[in-house]
Amino acid sequence: MFILTLLLLTSLLVLVYSNGDEDEAVVMLTRKVTWCSYNRAVHLASSVNERRVYLLYSKQTQDLESVAIANGSCAELKKRPYQVKAQPEVPSTWRTFGGLRSGVSKPAFIKWLASSTNLKYAWHIEDDAFFSGAWNDLFDPFRHNTADIVATRILRYDDSGRGWNKQLAIRCRVQGRPCAMRGVLHHSSWPVLRLSHRLATRIATALDSGQLTGTHEASLLAACR
Questions:
Q1: Rounded CA separation 26/52 (Å)
Q2: pLDDT in tens, 93-129
Q3: Which end of the chain is less congested by CB atoms within 10 angstroms, N or C?
Q4: φ, ψ dihedrals at 175, nearest 5°
């Protein structure tokens, strides 16, 4: 059984980090390392205590000079447990799990977490999510929570209401079963989201075998059933 917990917050940032024991991580995915993403990573790394921050960039859009700036040449980040790495390549069969605006950041996060066998959980912070407070104030309350998903918001759509997308509902299937149950489709919000390694592994296996089709918002909760 997979477990879901709701995190009731509004606008936040997207990243993945991990503590010294590497059992929980927070990661930020970006298409390119810029001074903006660098400064956000500095803020993140300075407010998560002993936790490690991962900044994963797209190899297709990254230039080596920007990586050099963020990966050790800046004094602030040298003081922090911080790593800059390339995002894992996403198979073409996984791309339906992505989105028109977010691209392959969600499937790349799933692939990264599923391959990180030293982790139990990882937080994903989207590129357009911001949080002005200390990140440990957000993460620490869920430190001992064993839910497979900790999400900011769950949206409920039915076939008689606003926001219902019939084609999306038809295309979304997990293990041969439709994501929509009895005319109801639940969407998960991803601005800040914690996922378990075991659920990421289950999703990765389903994507590899073609047993999961549909976008991340629609299929995530169905994969958690």
A1: 7
A2: 887 887 656 678 899 999 999 999 989 999 999 877 8
A3: N
A4: 55, 40
- Check residue 190 and give its pLDDT: 84
Q: Please give the Cα distance from 29 to 112 (Å, whole number).
A: 11
Note the pTM of the prediction, 2 decimals: 0.79
* SS3 per-residue string spanning the chain: CCCEEECCCCCCCCCEEECCCCCEEEEEEECCCCHHHHHHHHHHHCCCCCCEEEEEECCCCCCHHHHHHHCCCCHHHHCCCEEEEECCCCCHHHHHHCECCCECHHHHHHHHHHHCCCCCEEEEECCCCCCCCCHHHHHHHHCCCCCCEEECCEEEEECCCCCCCHHHHHHCEECCEECCECCEEEEECCCEEEEEHHHHHHHHHHHHHCCEECCHHHHHHHHCC
Amino acid at 41: A
Q: Which two tokens stand for residue 1?
A: 């059984």
Quote the CA–CA distance of 200 and 195 in Å, as a whole number: 7
Please choose, from the candidates 202, 106, 141, the residue with its C-alpha nearest in 3D space to the C-alpha of residue 6: 141
Residue 189's pLDDT is: 80
Q: Which range, 73-82, 152-161, 176-185, has the best average confidence (pLDDT)? A: 176-185
